[in-house]
Each structure stands twice: as structure tokens, then as C-alpha cells.
Amino acid sequence: MLDFLKPPVFAVQEFFLLAGRTFRNLFRRPHYPADIFLQMDTIGVGSLPIVSLIGFFTGAVMGMQMSKALQQYGAVGQTGQLVALTMVRELGPVLTAVVVAGRNAAGMASELGSMKVTEQIDAMRALGTDPIQKLVKPRLIATAVVLPLLTIIADFVGLFGGFIIAYFFLNLSPAQYWNNAWQSLEYLDVSFGLLKPFVFAFVVALTGCYYGLATTGGTQGVGRSTTQAVVSSIILIFVMNLFITRIYVSL
Amino acid sequence: MGSGTLLAERESAGRQGAERSGPVLRFDRVTVSFDELRALDEVSFEVHAGESRVILGAAGSGKTVLLKTALGLIKPESGRVWVFGEDITEMPEPELFAIRARIGVLFQEGGLFDSLTIEENVGYPLENQPSLRCPPEERSRRVREALRFVELEHTLEKYPSELSGGMRRRVGIARAVVTEPELVLYDSPTAGLDPITAYTIIALIIKERDLRNITTVVVTHRYQDAHFLTNFRWDTTTGSLRPAPPGQTRVRFLVLREGRLVFEGTRAELEASRDPYLMKFVRREE
Questions:
Q1: Is it the case that residue A1 has pLDDT exceeding 80?
Q2: Which residues on chain A are in Cβ contact (under 8 Å) with B100?
Q3: HSE (side-chain half, CA atoms, 13 Å) at B66
Q4: Cross-strand pairs, B218
Q5: Residue B18: which pLDDT band, with cuts at 50, 70 and 90?
Q6: Using CA atoms, how far apart are residues A103 and A146, in angstroms rounded to an integer?
Q7: What ranges do the domains of chain B cover?
Q8: From CA B110, how far away is CA B107, in angstroms rounded?
């Protein structure tokens, strides 16, 4: 029984140790700004098309589904409100984080994993660089900066998707849709809608880096780490989402 | 003055230096474990300045772990490790950088950064090692010099994936020696190479050892590498290896078996040993 529990407990301990060392190094020199910008480009600009597409179609589907439900109460005019609330509170942050996890946690785990199995991480340490500073910190900072921005874009594109449905299929006027959407959002919705991607960014970056740096066993190990990074980060995103939403509803 | 005399003088100076300053590398009952497996089991030895140390052992005997422990990349479970007279056993990572700046290392797989060019790879320690940072012009000059040493100056702009296995190993040597370290660790430098390339690599290791009279630790499973390191010296006049007079090279051997140090001594002592493992090892490889 204890042997069965040992690996997951050890993994959790190592994950928190990595997180602790990364936070401790956040404000320590050296900072490697070029690496931070490179990662922002890879994670942010690279994820923009898929995040926009998913945001748009999710908003459009929400528009259709919500209008169908609202029709029963003769309240189709409230479609903007429901699309805005679901996108900003839940779907925007969660879907964007899941997409970035699938794309970038996998990328981080495979890149760092390959470096680990080819002794590049050891070489880095032997040649005077702390891998936490050089590899983990730039990825964490870049993800924490771009994920909230991507979420804002996904929210807006989702609202636009809902608007296309409302305008062309529900015959709502632009003013009616956008006013309704805008007025339904409160300060708390927006602030929690942005707090979530910020927290998810830590989950995605640290999980991807953790599995990458923990890779053993050659190329097969790299594949295994990549899969574990994606699965774990997606599960953690949903778990964290539940906790944050619980805090939100209690306010 | 012949190069042999010069080398003998340097060697004598190195020996005197060693006596003054103590061992360059010292392991005292070092044990390293991974889960249930003991990779190193109470290993103790010393390496003195100017000495060449050949560490022999079959695959999985703990040779690579030993080198990584010497660099502070792996922390021992018990025992102590001293490098340049400093106890690095529990030394924090930032302090270890100052020690590592004085050590050159060639990893088994080369350990080259595949996203960097050869120039960036070789210049990496000069750019990132806190105590070795130098201006770009000087860095560039030293990188070219190191690449010229391994006869790969023309590969500056290439990436590691564009080079052959032997060339990557030579670039790894250039990166190990670009900082002019006092101690160089080579992890299986000839593993997986054809005999001609393996000879080129060993010749470079001997050249670096003899030109700068540095302390060299070579981990290998090929007894032939040990033979070259023991019986050959670099001749600066001909620019090639030549047989060394008996007793001129200071090479000592360590043999590891399943993490345990089973032999320490000279080549003659190793070959005279009646231990079945050592006999089998020496004979098979010879």
C-alpha cells in the first residue's frame, strides 16, 4: 500500500519544490528577457488563431443554445447577457487554458524532456546556468502574462460569435445584443474571469516544466512526460476552476 | 629544448603544486542511491593536480554518476566530496557555479544545446558562467581558438544536428576546454565511435592534457583508451601522438563494479591483478 502511494506523493513533493524554487527566483537575477519574449511569442501569438477559433465557435454555439432556452420564456433578447456571463466567467478562461495546456504544456514537457534525456539540462548546470532561471522562469512569466490576454481575446471573439447568431438568426439589433451583454457584466465577473487564467497559467507552465524536467527513459520517456503534462494540467485546471468558482459564488 | 623535456618540467611543477595544495578531487565514502539501487557504494579516492585518472567499468557500474557527483549535479546520500579543497557535498547551486567554472566537462552524449549554433554552444560558458563572463569580442576569439584546437573552426554557424557524431564530440571537447579549466572530466568520450574517430578524440584529450598539464579524469569502458592515455604523449613538434618514455605519464586507474570501487592503482598493477572481474575486463577490452 505504501509502495503504491510513494510515487504520487513524491511527484507532488517535487512539483511543489519546483514551484517554490521558481517563485523564489522570480525576482532574482539573471532574468533572461529574450527568453521571456520568445516564450510569449510561442505561447501567445502561436495560440492566438486556435484560441480565437474556439472562442468564436463556443460563443456562437452558446448563442444558439441560450436563445433556444430563452425562447420558452419569450426572452430571446437576453441572449447577449447569457453569452457574456458564460464566456467571461467560465468558458473563456477554462477553454483558453485547456487549449494552451494542450499546446504549450505539451511543448514545454517535450522540449525540456528532450533536453533532460540528452544531458542538456546537466550541461546547462555544469556551464553556469540554473535551469529554473533559464527555462522554467521565462515560461512561467510568459504564460502568466499572455494567458489572461488570450482569455480577453477569447471572451471578445466568443461574444462576437454570439452576436453573429443573434443578428443573423435571432433578428436582434447590434445595440440590443451588445448593451445587454455589456450591462450584465459586473466588476466581479470580469475580475474573476481574469484571475482564473492567471492561476491557470501557473498550473500550465509549472506542470509542463515539472514533467519535462522529471523525464527519464529516453524518447519513450519524453512521450510519456508530454502526455502526463497535458492530462495533469487539464485536470488541475478544472479542479482549480471549481475552487475559484466556489470563492466567487460565496462573495 | 625538446617537447619531452618541457613536458617533464611541467609535470614536475604540477606534482609539486599538487603536493602543496592537496587533491583536486576527493571522494570520501561516497554513496549515491536511486530508489533501491546503489549507483555508488562507499567510493573513496583522490585525484591530484596534473594527474590523469582513468575510470573503467562496465555499463551501469556508476561511472557517469561518479562524474556527475564530482560536479555537484548529483548529491550523495552519504559521504563527502571535495573539489579544489572545498567541500561541495551540501554546497548550494549558486556557490557551485564558481567551482564548476574551474572544471571542464564532456558529457557522454556531448550535451550540446541543439537549438544553439556551434559558436553559441562553445561560447556558452563564457557568456553564462558568472565568474567567466567576458566581452563578445574576447568570447568570439576564444571560441574560435577552442574550435581551432579541435580542427572544427569552419563549423561556427552550423547546428549540432548538422554534424557527425565524432564532430559533435569534438565540439563538446572545445566547449569543455574553452574556459581553460584546471580539471577536465570526460564521460565515455569514445563511446559509439568508429576506431579512427575514437583515436582522434583520445589524441585531443592527450593534447589538451599535455599542452596545459591539466588534471584529467576519463571515464571509459574501452581499455584501449586507457592504453593510449598511459603510453602516449602529445608531441608539439610533429603535432601528433608519440610513445611516452616509461613512467613519464601519471595515469592511475579506478575500476568500478556495480557502484563499488574494486581497484585503484597503476596500469601494471591492474594487468597483474588476479581478480577474475579485472582480468576479464582487461583481456576482453585489449
A1: no
A2: 125-128
A3: 38
A4: B54, B186
A5: very low
A6: 14
A7: 49-71+90-102+181-285
A8: 5
b (16+ CB within 10 A) / e for B91-122: beeeebbbbbbbbbbbbbbbbbbeeebbbbbb
Judged by CB atoms closer than 8 Å, whether chains meet at A119 and B111 is answered as yes
Cell numbers found for residue B236? 608539439
Asked if the bond preceding B125 is cis, omega within 30° of 0, the reply is: no
Q: What is the C-alpha to C-alpha distance for residues B32 and B55, in angstroms, rounded to an integer?
A: 17
pLDDT at A230 over 90: yes
Q: How far apart are CA A250 and CA A192, in angstroms?
A: 12
Say if the Cβ atoms of A119 and B93 lie within 8 Å.
no
Task: Return the closest-CA partner of residue A196 out of A98, A94, A101, A105.
Answer: A94
Mean pLDDT for B155-172 is: 92
Rounded to whole angstroms, the Cα distance separating B186 from B214 reads 13
Q: Burial of A190 by CB count in 10 Å (0-12 exposed, 13-18 middle, 19+ buried)? A: middle
What are the structural domain ranges in chain A?
Answer: 32-250
Mutate to test the interface with A, among B128, B132, B217 (most CBs of A within 10 A): B128
Q: What is the strand order of the sheet B260-265 is part of? A: B103-106, B183-187, B215-220, B52-57, B251-257, B260-265
For the domain made up of B49-71+90-102+181-285, the CATH class stated in words is: alpha beta
Provide the grid cell at A186: 459586473
Q: What is the reported pTM?
A: 0.86
Whether A128 and B71 lie within 8 Å, measured CB to CB: no
* pLDDT of B184 strictly over 50: yes
CA–CA separation, A56 and A42 (whole Å): 21
Residues A64-82 pLDDT 10s: 998 888 888 888 888 899 9
Helices assigned H by DSSP within B84-161: 93-100, 118-128, 136-149
The grid coordinates of residue B260 equal 563499488
C-alpha cell at position B158: 552550423
Q: Give dist(CA A183, CA A175) in Å, integer.
A: 12
Q: What residues of A are in contact with residue B105 (Cβ under 8 Å)?
A: 123, 126
Q: Which residue of A122, A125, A132, A133 is the best one to mutate when testing the B interface, meaning the one whose CB has the most B CBs within 10 A?
A: A122
* Beta strands B86-87; B78-83: pairing state: antiparallel
Q: Do A128 and B73 touch (CB under 8 A)?
A: no
Nearest 5 degrees, angle CA B279-CA B285-CA B286? 85
DSSP string, A116-139: HHTTHHHHHHHTT--HIIIIIHHH
